[in-house]
Design a protein that fits this description.
It is a single chain. This protein is α/β, with parallel strands linked by helices. It has a single domain, classed as TIM Barrel (Alpha-Beta Barrel). Helix content is 32%, strand content 13%. The chain has a 7-stranded parallel β-sheet with strand order 1-2-3-4-5-6-7. β2, α2 and β3 form a beta-alpha-beta unit. α5 runs parallel beside α6 and α6 crosses α7. The chain binds zinc ion (ZN) (2 copies). The site of one zinc ion has 5 residues, from loops.
Length: 261
C-alpha cells in the first residue's frame, strides 16, 4: 500500500541520529505528503529531550523550515512516556496542547514507578523472573497504565508499539483505543506488535496507524513491516488512517479532529 505520511520519527534532540532537515528530505524522497517529528519525552533518561520546552523550540525551527518545503507538511509532536499506573505523562498538558500529534507509550528506564499493592509497571524481560501469578499481576498493571493514560489524556492520538517492552492485555488496550478514538500503532522499527496481536486488535475494531519510528534517515517512511502484515491479513485499508487515500492528519489527529469512528 502507499502512504500519506509517517507520524513517528526521532531527531538528535532525543535518541535519533538525524536533524529535522534530514527527516524532511528523507520523507520527500519516499514520496510522503506529511511527516511528524516526535521526540521522546524528557523522563526517558538519556534518550529523552532535555526538557519539555524543547518541543516548542522544534516548533519554531519547523516553522522556519516549512516554507522551504511546500510539497510536505511538517508536523511537530511528542512520544510522551506513560509514567505511572494513573496514566500520567511526562510532557505537561499545556505543551501537548500546542503540538500537532501526541503519541504515548511505555519505555524502559523511564519510570519512577508508582507502586500500588506492591505492583508497578514491569518490563518484559523481568517477567521471566516472576511466578505465573506475579506475571499476571504485572500484565494487569501495565495494561492499567496504558488504559489510564488513554482516559486521563484526551490529547493522545496514538499508542506507540502496544506491548513492546511491557507485556499488556492487547484486547483491553485495543478496546480503550476504540472507545477513546486513539490509534493503535503498528511500529515498523521494532516490528511490533506481532501478527497475532494485530489480529486481536483488528477483531476488537481499532483503527491502525503504521509508523516507521525512524531514528535514522534511511528508515524514515519505511513502512514495509506494517504494509506487509496488512496485506497478509487482508485488513480493510480504510482502517489504516495513514494510507494514501486517508487525507492526512487533519482527518484523524485529535487537535484537528474531523475524524469519526
Ligand atoms: Zn517508543
Ligand atoms: Zn519512538
Amino acid at each position: 500500500m502507499k502512504f500519506y505520511g509517517d507520524y513517528h520519527t526521532h531527531t538528535r534532540r532525543s535518541d535519533g541520529r538525524q536533524s529535522e532537515e534530514q527527516i524532511i528530505v528523507a520523507a520527500l524522497g519516499r514520496g510522503l505528503k506529511e511527516v511528524a517529528i516526535t521526540d521522546h519525552g524528557p523522563l526517558a533518561a538519556v534518550i529523552g529531550v532535555k526538557n519539555p520546552e524543547v518541543y516548542l523550540q522544534t516548533k519554531e525551527r519547523v516553522k522556519n523550515l516549512q516554507p522551504l518545503y511546500p510539497d510536505l507538511t511538517i508536523l511537530v509532536g511528542a512520544e510522551a512516556n506513560i509514567r505511572d499506573l494513573d496514566g500520567n505523562l511526562d510532557v505537561p498538558s499545556a505543551i501537548l496542547d500546542q503540538l500537532d500529534i501526541v503519541i504515548a507509550g511505555l519505555h524502559p528506564y523511564t519510570l519512577p514507578t508508582s507502586f500500588q499493592d506492591g505492583v508497578g509497571i514491569f518490563v518484559q524481560n523481568s517477567l521471566r523472573h516472576l511466578s505465573q501469578a506475579q506475571r499476571e499481576k504485572a500484565i494487569t498493571a501495565n495494561t492499567q497504565a496504558i488504559i489510564a493514560a488513554i482516559y486521563a489524556n484526551p490529547q493522545i492520538d496514538i499508542i506507540s508499539h502496544p506491548g513492546l517492552f511491557f507485556a499488556v492485555d492487547i484486547e483491553e488496550v485495543a478496546q480503550a483505543c476504540v472507545k477513546q478514538g486513539v490509534l493503535f500503532e503498528i511500529n515498523c522499527a521494532h516490528e511490533h506488535p506481532d501478527v497475532s496481536d494485530i489480529m486481536v486488535a483488528e477483531r476488537v475494531g481499532v483503527d491502525f496507524i503504521i509508523n516507521s519510528d525512524a531514528h535514522f534517515t534511511d528508515t524514515v517512511g519505511d513502512l514495509r513491516y506494517g504494509s506487509d502484515i496488512v496485506a497478509q491479513l487482508d485488513i480493510d485499508l480504510g482502517r489504516i488512517v495513514n494510507g494514501l487515500d486517508g487525507g492526512g492528519h487533519t482527518r484523524w489527529a485529535k487537535k484537528h479532529a474531523t475524524y469519526t469512528f
